[in-house]
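Here is the promised in-class demo. Please do not try to memorize the tokens; focus on the logic of going from shape to residues.
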């Protein structure tokens, strides 16, 4: 009887569809029609699956960090406008906790003596991830300084900060998409978004200087405004660099 057929009670022989054989082969890890090569194919399948799962873990970890970054920027914006210190404290703790949760995987990876190509690629991205995390912490500290000192920003300054925060949040999302898909168009789009965000920061910086010169903005408010904008610019720049490497 053909390997592709089977008898069923009271029925003619049924042909096993190719799709079922493929599914069964994937489940078992070897081709049962090729017993002489069964062991080798099972080993190759296991190694490929292990490598795939490791790469998937790296992509998921980075995607999670970028998602948390976008959520944190949203929270920071709400805290800045509502002047909610308690909510800001929660955002600070959540951001620090999420960054800390990625350390075990990173430390285990770096400690390995022999690192496959996928591991090396992930390690090459770590400095950018670290700088993104540092810039995110600086952003939180800038907003904390604004609230603790009870510094008032002009409506114009609030509007500019809000716009740039929205641009950087979208950039974090699109950088994650570029990483997940490996699509060159997505990387190009993320770079263009980053350049747009940086241009906005520089443009608004010049506008701010004019407000300061005419007395529409106090020196104290100027300091925190520039500090927040500098952190957002650093995040945008690092995200652009990250997308290029991904």
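The designed amino acids, position by position:
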């Amino acid at each position: 009887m053909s390997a592709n057929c089977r008898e069923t009670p009271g029925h003619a022989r049924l042909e096993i569809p190719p799709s079922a054989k493929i599914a069964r082969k994937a489940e078992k890890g070897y081709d049962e029609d090729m017993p002489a090569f069964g062991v080798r194919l099972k080993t190759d399948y296991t190694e490929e699956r292990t490598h795939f799962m490791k790469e998937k873990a790296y992509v998921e970890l980075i995607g999670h960090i970028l998602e948390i970054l976008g959520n944190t920027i949203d929270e920071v914006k709400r805290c800045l406008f509502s002047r909610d210190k308690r909510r800001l404290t929660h955002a600070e703790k959540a951001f620090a906790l999420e960054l800390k949760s990625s350390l075990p995987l990173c430390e285990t990876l770096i400690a390995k003596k022999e690192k496959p190509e996928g591991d090396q690629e992930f390690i090459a991205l770590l400095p950018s991830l670290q700088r993104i995390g540092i810039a995110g912490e600086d952003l939180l500290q800038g907003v904390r300084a604004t609230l603790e000192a009870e510094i008032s920003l002009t409506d114009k300054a609030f509007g500019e900060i809000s716009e740039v925060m929205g641009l950087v949040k979208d950039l974090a999302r699109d950088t994650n998409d570029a990483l997940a898909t490996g699509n060159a168009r997505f990387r190009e789009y993320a770079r263009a978004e980053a350049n747009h965000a940086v241009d906005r920061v520089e443009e608004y910086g010049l506008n701010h200087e004019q407000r300061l010169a005419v007395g529409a903005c106090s020196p104290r408010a100027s300091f925190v405004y520039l500090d927040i904008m500098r952190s957002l610019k650093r995040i945008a720049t690092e995200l652009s660099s990250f997308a290029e490497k991904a």
